[in-house]
Design goal:
By secondary structure, the chain is α+β, with helices and mostly antiparallel strands. The chain has a domain of 111 residues. It contains four helices and nine strands. Strands 1, 2, 3, 4, 5, 6, 7, 8 and 9 form a nine-stranded mixed sheet that branches. Strand 6 and strand 7 form a beta hairpin. The N and C termini lie far apart (44 Å).
Length: 193
């Protein structure tokens, strides 16, 4: 039996509302279930505010320089690793998932092309016609520019359907709306009227 409860484990491991592939420790993996097979597709650009803190800006279509200038306000587009120019605009997906380790609904946001391609390839296999009926294991090896990810489809964890359905229903009843990402808002919290 684990010392910590599932909620305590999630709090200590970073938990939060996002399942971020970059935050997975090298040599480890995370198991999740897709709650929708219709991802939110967008373009993302990171910018830094006057206080030096970074923030993502998301656009429904590839933004023009003018689009970014208007959206950024006081923010400045973040530089690439080499410091030779701005970070590229990245295509990204976001999907609601059930993270088994955290035992909660989270958002899986992907800008890593290798992961996006693997999920797309799996989605086109006849054996996996319903991506919401199986689980996935996302593994990570290496670090920095030498990071490699692997996505493996696996059968649904025994007895998990009830927990997954309850967590997803609770999130939707609380007003979950993934499209709020495009407004820079929290998908888990409806805007106050």
């Amino acid at each position: 039996m684990a010392l910590l409860s599932k909620s305590a484990q999630a709090a200590v491991s970073g938990g939060g509302a996002y399942l971020s592939p970059s935050k997975i420790a090298a040599g480890s993996s995370v198991r999740f279930a897709l709650l929708s097979d219709e991802p939110l597709e967008f373009y993302e650009v990171w910018a830094e505010g006057p206080d030096g803190k970074s923030k993502p800006f998301r656009f429904a279509s590839e933004p023009s320089p003018d689009d970014m200038t208007i959206a950024f306000g006081d923010f400045t587009r973040r530089m690439n690793r080499e410091g030779t120019g701005p970070e590229p605009i990245k295509f990204a997906l976001a999907l609601p998932v059930y993270n088994f380790e955290a035992a909660q609904v989270q958002i899986l946001q992907l800008s890593q092309k290798s992961i996006i391609r693997e999920l797309d390839n799996i989605s086109q296999m006849p054996d996996y016609d319903d991506l919401t009926a199986i689980d996935f294991i996302l593994g990570k090896e290496g670090a920095g520019l030498n990071t490699e990810y692997k996505v493996t489809p696996v059968p649904r964890k025994k007895g998990a359907d009830k927990d997954i359905a309850a967590a997803w229903e609770d999130s939707r009843a609380a007003g979950f709306d993934i499209s709020r990402l495009l407004e820079g808002a929290d998908p888990f919290k409806p805007e106050a009227a």
